């Protein structure tokens, strides 16, 4: 992975070859830093596995219309149980209701758990891009790129073949402009995002159209080492350009009586480190451990006591990651002055320290 400062051009690259320059790879160290998996593949693999395991009812294309506490009747006391009314007319009573229902979680609202934070006044523009080749590392050694611009980072994440995913965090106005451009102007802007100066980019966002010609002219006067940045984008897949508002939110707690929150229902993070879904998967794994222990020890899996270990296993870790990404966003939003010099010095220092980089990569790769 290659990361650099769009103002000072200070760089850091994460790959095992440079990190190992001061020592051999430990057997516990993975050989790949990260995998890029499209969400659709993760979801279909999980659904396939659920079907294989059996014993699970799935309701496709069904909405949870409302959640209320159940009734206390002569046969059954459901007064502490959440009862879900589904759009297919069914209703379900839950011993434990797991809210994996995103940033605006209806389950969190039902449980009365406050979620605090703020909006970044930034949108993440995403798109599927076609490149002029498989990438500088060839088809088997894919490289991800991220350039920190004062308005937010622009990242290109590799996909199979000659394709890549764009995540460009920028102001809502610039996001709207990018989405309004023709394909040719949009492609030119993405190429410019990795090549031209923040001042050039600021000007280019003010043009109603014609970015392609303007950028071609400006690039002639801006020498870059093409092999240190992503291969040129040649096309954008129709219908893939979209944008999402970026927020930082953290629920006060992940558990309540017969309720547990996972993923974005519990926390929403800036995407600059690509950690949102990873955090959610960490939550799911920790919740499974908690439920297994409760079952093995004969506890009620919906009681706050049984769920407490899930909250303590995940809250602090997620909070630390939310803080790191927030600080990085703030650090790189600064356009000039001593902060730019200091952050560039820090980046270059870490880049020169093989073992320290190895530590970061090991953490990112899920190693020990
Ligand atoms: C621009 C951008 C780029 C990102 N890039 C990365 C990345 O590279 N790597 C990474 O790990 N993360 C990334 N993330 C974060 C990642 O997308 C989220 O963290 C992840 O999608 C959260 O998953 P989730 O299942 O918790 O919530 P969601 O994906 O929001 O899913 C919630 C689901 O609940 C359903 N739902 C909600 N209410 C109801 C209801 N009443 N009835 C029925 N269903 C309901 C919704 O339809 C939805 O399917 C990025 C985010 C953004 C905005």
From TrEMBL:
InterPro entries: FAD-bd, FAD/NAD-bd_sf, Ubi_Hdrlase_CS, UbiH/COQ6, UbiH/COQ6_monooxygenase. Its cofactor is FAD. Keywords: FAD, Flavoprotein, Monooxygenase, Oxidoreductase, Ubiquinone. PANTHER family: UBIQUINONE BIOSYNTHESIS MONOOXYGENASE COQ6, MITOCHONDRIAL. Pfam families: FAD_binding_3. Residues 37-316 form the FAD-binding domain. Belongs to the UbiH/COQ6 family. The gene is COQ6. This is Ubiquinone biosynthesis monooxygenase. GO terms for molecular function: monooxygenase activity.
């Amino acid at each position: 992975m290659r990361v650099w400062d769009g103002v000072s051009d200070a760089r850091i690259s994460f790959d095992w070859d440079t990190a190992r320059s001061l020592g051999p790879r430990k057997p516990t160290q993975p050989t790949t830093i990260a995998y890029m998996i499209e969400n659709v593949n993760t979801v279909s693999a999980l659904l396939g596995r659920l079907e294989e395991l059996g014993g699970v009812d799935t309701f496709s294309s069904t909405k949870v219309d409302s959640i209320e506490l159940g009734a206390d009747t002569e046969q059954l006391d459901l007064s502490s149980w959440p009862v879900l009314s589904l759009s297919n007319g069914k209703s379900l009573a839950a011993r434990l209701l797991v809210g994996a229902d995103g940033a605006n979680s209806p389950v969190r609202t039902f449980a009365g758990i406050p979620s605090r934070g703020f909006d970044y006044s930034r949108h993440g523009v995403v798109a599927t891009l076609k490149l002029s080749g498989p990438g500088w590392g060839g088809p088997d050694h894919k490289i991800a790129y991220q350039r920190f611009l004062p308005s937010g980072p622009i990242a290109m994440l590799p996909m199979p073949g000659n394709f890549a995913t764009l995540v460009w965090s920028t102001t809502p106005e610039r996001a709207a402009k990018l989405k309004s451009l023709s394909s040719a102007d949009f492609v030119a802007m993405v190429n410019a995002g990795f090549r031209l100066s923040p001042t050039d980019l600021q000007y280019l966002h003010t043009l109603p159209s014609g970015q392609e010609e303007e950028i071609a002219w400006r690039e002639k006067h801006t020498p870059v080492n093409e092999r240190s940045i992503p291969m040129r984008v040649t096309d954008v897949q129709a219908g893939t350009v979209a944008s999402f508002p970026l927020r930082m939110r953290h629920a006060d707690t992940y558990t309540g009586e017969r309720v547990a929150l996972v993923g974005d229902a519990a926390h929403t993070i800036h995407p600059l480190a690509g950690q949102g879904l990873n955090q959610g998967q960490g939550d799911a794994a920790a919740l499974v451990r908690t439920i297994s222990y409760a079952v093995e020890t004969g506890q009620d899996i919906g009681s706050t006591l049984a769920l407490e270990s899930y909250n303590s296993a995940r809250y602090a870790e997620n909070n630390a990651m939310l803080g790191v990404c927030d600080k990085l966003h703030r650090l790189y939003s600064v356009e000039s002055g001593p902060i730019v010099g200091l952050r560039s010095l820090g980046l270059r220092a870490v880049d020169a320290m093989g073992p320290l980089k190895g530590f970061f990569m090991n953490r990112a790769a899920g190693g020990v």
